[in-house]
Amino acid sequence: GRRRSVVLVGVTGDGKSSTGNTLCGSVAFSVSNGFKSETQECAHADYMRTAGGGVSLWRIIDTVGLHDTDLSQKEVLDRFSLFADRTPDGIDAFLFVVRWGRFKPEHDAALASFVSNCGEAALHHTILVFTNCKASQEEVDRALAEDAPSTLRVWLPQLQGAVGIDNDLHPDSARERLHEALERLCVANAGVRYSNEALQEARRKAAQVEEAERAAFQAAVADWRRTEGPVTIVREE
User: Fold this and answer.
1) In angstroms, what CA-CA distances link 42 with 177, 181, 182, 201?
2) Tens-digit pLDDT profile for residues 118-128
3) What is the dihedral of CA 19, 24, 27, 29, to 10 degrees?
4) Region for residue 14 given its phi and psi (left: phi exceeds 0; alpha: psi -120 to 50; beta: otherwise)
5) Can you tell me the distance from the alpha carbon of 83 to that of 141, in angstroms, rounded to the nearest whole number?
6) 124: buried, middle or exposed (CB in 10 Å: 19+, 13-18, 0-12)?
7) What is the spatial distance between Cα 181 and Cα 160, in angstroms, rounded to a whole number?
8) Which of 55, 108, 202, 215 is in Cβ range 3.0-4.6 Å of 151 for a Cys bridge?
């Protein structure tokens, strides 16, 4: 069958690269220390999976941490979008990785950046992955239903499920949970992938919005200057 492509998404330090290593069953990606993203560009690894008597080929793409502290937001999104070069046939799934028990404003902002950069269509292919999670899947589902913060509740209906894993203590069961979720997603989407054309269109729209906002700001400043006149500073002797 055809190779399946999965893109890892998230902020730095939440276990994005570790999740990629779990899926591959090897140390394919450098893991950050939590302060600075080790993944400054996109990186990818290919592996074969044998399950149910069949063999499938997978490509995992690790991306720069959204809201990386060393880069401007534009640089981050430009580098993040390089995943398209590694996936010419489109993407089967995005895994948005968050550390369990921690959905902070930066995660909300990272998801919003992801959507503005990739478009709403990307959410039809996105699974939420909680790392460092000791809870069973049933406990994860219950916690999300009862205790999720309001910012996360807004996103949950738009995402294609959530999986809790522990990359460090239980990598084998983590790999199985991830692949079960990925298989369910591929079946639900009937093999339809997120396309590079969708990415280009979303980025074009985002650039148009940014340009319109810049023009509106400049017009407002010009208007203010026209009505208020130049600012003069009177220094008292």
Assistant:
1) 25, 23, 21, 21
2) 889 999 999 99
3) -60
4) alpha
5) 30
6) middle
7) 9
8) 108
> Using CA of residue 77, residue 80, residue 82, residue 83, what is the dihedral sign?
negative
Residues in Cβ contact with 31 at an 8 Å cutoff, skipping those fewer than 6 apart? 17, 18, 21, 38
Please give the structure tokens belonging to residue 233.
């500073």
What residue ranges of the chain have pLDDT lower than 50?
35
Q: Name the nearest CA neighbour of 34 among 87, 108, 102, 114.
A: 102
The label of the residue with tokens 């959507």 reads 115
CB neighbourhood size of 135 (10 A): 15
Whether residue 158 contacts residue 123, with contact meaning beta carbons closer than 8 Å, is answered with yes
Q: How far apart are CA 104 and CA 99, in angstroms?
A: 10
For residue range 157-175, list pLDDT tens digits in order: 999 999 999 999 999 999 9
Map the chain to HEC letters. Answer: CCCEEEEEEEECCCCHHHHHHHHHCCCCCCCCCCCCCCCCCCEEEEEEEEECCEEEEEEEEECCCECCCCCCHHHHHHHHCCHHHHCCCCECEEEEEEECCCCCHHHHHHHHHHHHHHCHHHHHHEEEEEECCCCCHHHHHHHHHHHCCHHHHHHHHHCCCEEECCCCCCHHHHHHHHHHHHHHHHHHCCCCCECHHHHHHHHHHHHHHHHHHHHHHHHHHHHHHHHHCCCCCCCCC
